[in-house]
Design goal:
Layout lengths: L2 E4 L6 H8 L3 H9 L5 H9 L14 H14 L2 E5 L4 H16 L3 E5 L12 H9 L4 E5 L6 H9 L3 E5 L6 E4 L2 E4 L6 E3 L15 H15 L11 H10 L6 H13 L6 H9 L9 H18 L3 H8 L3 H34 L9 E4 L8 H12 L3 E6 L4 E6 L6 H6 L7 E4 L3 E6 L4 H11 L10 E4 L1 E2 L7 H7 L14 E14 L5 E7 L5 E7 L2 H10 L3 E12 L2 E11 L1
Parallel strand pairs: 1-14, 2-3, 2-4, 4-5, 5-8, 9-10, 15-16, 18-20
Antiparallel strand pairs: 6-7, 10-11, 11-13, 12-13, 16-17, 16-19, 17-18, 19-20
Helix pairs in contact: 1-2, 4-8, 5-8, 5-9, 5-13, 6-7, 8-9, 9-10, 9-12, 11-14, 12-14, 13-14, 14-15
């Protein structure tokens, strides 16, 4: 059963409202997102690209720029080794475009998910040696590749790591010992002695920072960096980074430019998904465009997504965009099948009693493990790992809940795995099949999550009657966009609403449209997306209902009306 709580953060909301010339409700929303103090509020509402931190604050930035400046002068062969997800593909594109612009002799290799696995592997170092590569630049990987980078160094190569994943460590006598690869320069803001203030960058933003510093060194006009904003926004949302501070500014700027992007591949991907005349939001990146870019790395090769971003003609871009959109449809169907199989397994075995779910689906495509794990986390509100059969061993991905740091828990089981890495909220691993049951047992033995931790919590921003909603208030709320992780869409609530009228609409019969009356006599239209039959049965049995909601302006055939989108009900 969900627990509804109203955020109780204190401030003088009337004063803040006057300072920003907005309704006190907006001041409360800003405070609930932990934006405190006049400077921070100003940055939140009015922050621009000019206010983001300098790339030179990042540890090893000068060293990394010095190295590539010399390599470019020597016309040494440089290879970018990326990753097959949305962050890895966009990082690779940013580095390739940027290094080409400053005259580097550069090529790229994005590992194949099945054939190569994640990140740098020994056979990629051997391939680089046979291709006479002088310098390897990683993006969205490399921080955990100690042995492979050591091998590259022994072969005489220069290695620059650009990454954003957690810095590997081992627990020794109750203390953490950090393990860094022997690269010539490491750009990763998570290094404890890195002065860069934003520790929560995605890989593409780390790559963008590197290119920003290189452009400065090579006297490239700052205006040319604008070509990267859309890619940085797509990666930040797609890799589920917190939309706070610098990240939020970059996403806001990228979204503003996306409808008029100069990138032919993105133009055609927008067209293929019928978004040409729509306001493109973080939602569209997370659930429409982003999954298409990810789909090729899941079911085909991520080189196809990189080719889309590099497309030089409308025809080439249109074909690739169509292919990726179709691949994403296949991915959705396979995901649904895998999810149902996982739920069946949990519900019919002792797995349902576990606080940490570990589900082995040997026949599932390994690229879908993370998405299915995410679906299980949503359904059960528990940390979830989904493992599949790989060529040499089982592989899998995990998705977590706020009170469970997945990476830290994996460190405690390090001896059971072949390889692992990730963040507090998501992780990837390789493991021998015979160790899966031990892995499941150890995770659950170590688990300290309580019943309260496992109970989904709905945090309500403001208990606000629908009679308070105005067009002006809805327009002010939109100034807080983009919404996503770390800057969640506001949630309002009201109890005692009477349903005057209701009916199921939509071709899939999964939408309920209704008319609601509140105790003050205000009437508003409501929309509910979800299990329509369950919702209809619920409202038939009740005299009144309580809902959490988000207010919107419904624009239809030139007419505007207020409505609420119902998210939860009881």
């Amino acid at each position: 059963m969900e627990k509804w709580v109203v955020a109780a953060k204190k401030a003088d909301f009337n004063l803040i409202g006057r300072q920003v010339h907005m309704d006190p409700v907006i001041a409360r929303l800003i405070r609930n997102r932990d934006v405190v103090g006049e400077e921070k509020i100003k940055e939140y509402l009015l922050g621009t690209i000019d206010t983001i931190p300098s790339p030179w604050l990042m540890k090893d930035m000068k060293k990394a720029v010095d190295i590539l400046e010399k390599k470019i002068q020597q016309q040494a062969k440089i290879r970018i080794i990326g990753d097959y997800d949305i962050d890895g593909v966009t990082s690779t594109y940013i580095l390739l475009k940027g290094l080409t612009r400053i005259g580097a002799n550069v090529d790229t290799y994005i590992p194949d998910r099945v054939a190569d696995g994640y990140g740098i592997h020994e056979h990629l170092i051997d391939r680089a040696e046979s291709d006479k590569i002088d310098t390897i630049v990683t993006c969205d990987n490399g921080i955990a590749a100690c042995a492979e980078i050591q091998m590259a160094k022994e072969k005489g190569m220069t290695v620059i790591v650009t990454d954003h994943h957690e810095i590997p460590y081992r627990e020794e006598n109750g203390e953490r010992r950090v393990i860094l690869p022997p690269a010539d320069a490491i750009l990763n803001p998570k290094q404890c002695d890195c002065l860069y203030p934003n520790k929560n960058l995605c890989g593409a933003v780390v790559a963008f920072k590197y290119i920003t510093a290189l452009y400065e060194r090579f006297d490239i006009q700052k205006k040319e960096l604008e070509d990267y904003y859309e890619l940085v926004a797509i990666a930040t949302v797609g890799d589920v980074m917190d939309l706070q501070g610098e990240n939020r500014i970059l996403v806001k700027e990228g979204l503003r430019r996306l409808p008029n992007t100069k990138n032919k591949g993105l133009q055609e991907l927008i067209r293929a998904n019928n978004l040409e005349d729509s306001k493109i939001t973080a939602y569209h990146i997370g659930f429409v465009l982003g999954p298409c870019i990810n789909a090729s790395g899941r079911l085909d090769t991520a080189a196809r997504s990189l080719a889309l971003l590099n497309a030089s003609t409308k025809e080439e871009a249109a074909k690739l965009a169509g292919d990726l959109t179709a691949l994403n449809q296949s991915r959705k169907a396979l995901t649904e099948k895998g999810k149902e199989e996982a739920i069946q397994l949990i519900e019919t075995t002792e797995l349902k009693n576990d606080r940490v779910l570990v589900v082995y689906l040997p026949e599932c495509h390994e690229s879908l493990a993370g998405i299915i794990a995410g679906r299980l986390r949503e359904k059960y509100h528990k940390p979830a790992f989904v493992l599949t059969r790989g060529e040499k061993c089982a592989k899998g991905s995990g998705r977590s809940i706020e009170s469970y740091s997945m990476y830290d828990e994996l460190v405690k089981c390090a001896d059971l795995m072949v390889q692992f890495g990730g963040h507090p909220m998501a992780a990837g691993l390789s493991i021998e099949e015979e160790n899966i049951e031990k892995f499941r047992e150890q995770l659950n033995q170590n688990c300290t999550l309580t019943e309260e931790d496992l109970r989904p919590k709905i945090v309500i921003d403001v208990a606000m009657p629908i009679s308070y909603i105005t067009k002006e208030l809805v327009e002010q709320i939109s100034l807080l966009e983009p919404f996503g992780k770390g800057n969640v869409k506001p949630i309002f609530a009201q109890k005692g609403l009477r349903v005057l009228d209701s009916n199921i609409i939509g071709k899939n019969k999964n939408v309920v449209k209704l008319k609601l009356l509140d105790p003050q006599g205000a009437i508003i239209e409501g929309i509910y997306f979800g299990e329509a039959d369950d919702f209809m049965n619920f409202i038939r049995e009740k005299d009144s209902i309580s809902v959490t909601y988000y207010p919107e302006i419904n624009r239809f055939r030139g007419r505007e009306s207020l409505q609420i989108i119902i998210q939860n009900y009881c």
